[in-house]
Amino acid sequence: MNYQNKNLEYTNAEAYDKRGESSVLEKYVLELWQPFLKNIVAGLSSDKIVIDLGCGTCEYAQAAREAKKIYAVDVSEEMLGVCRKKMENFKQAEIINSSIENFVSPILADLVITIGIWEYADLGKLYEKIKNITQSGSKVIVVFPNIYNGLNWMRSLVKWRRVAIRPSFIKKLFRNNFTLVDSDSFGTVFWFPKKLQFLTKPIWKLEDWFWKPFQKFLPVGVNVYYLFERK
Ligand SMILES: C[S@@+](CC[C@H](N)C(=O)[O-])C[C@H]1O[C@@H](n2cnc3c(N)ncnc32)[C@H](O)[C@@H]1O
Asked: How confident is the model at residue 7 (pLDDT cuts 50, 70, 90)?
């Protein structure tokens, strides 16, 4: 089921959260990425001020269980509806319906989460916002679709718009004010007809296993993860 309309607005939060049920590929990618990222969010957020930009249904914000304060920001009230439910026991969370551009943070963040937002945002403006809400020592989780992945190449061609980003572009954007402290990539999937994807899953697994040592230098996974620290 579609969770976005033709203007790329998120209109069905439940379908978004269930997207792993619709294809072997989505499930394979989610099962790799979600535990990995939640682990990182949990590890970096204890006693910290966390700002999640483009939080969606708060799948990752909810991993910041031990955070001192959480600001979860999204332009889609539909997505925030599900986020509010997931975060109802988080007394320290403020759920904010705003575009990232208009969001004015009341405080500087120790940890900024930007997962799955880079392909929608104006990259320069998003970076400026991150700069405005961080200070020396603040960490930023950046996760974006990787242009060097076969599936993303194909999606870009078919949709004729930017669906993925060059990792070197992101690194360059952050270079002056941030240090790259960690990176990874996996989910080395390629396009295959939905009904036959179970045939390619072992190949994706093999590729991920084989390419694991090289992903830091030449990422070919469907997404790239960078962790930056403000200088
Ligand atoms: C792919 S989803 C990612 C959600 C969440 N970060 C995750 O990884 O599950 C992208 C989210 O960004 C939000 N979004 C897109 N453009 C935005 C903007 N300019 N300001 C705030 N949120 C935006 C959408 O409403 C959507 O919830």
From this structure: confident
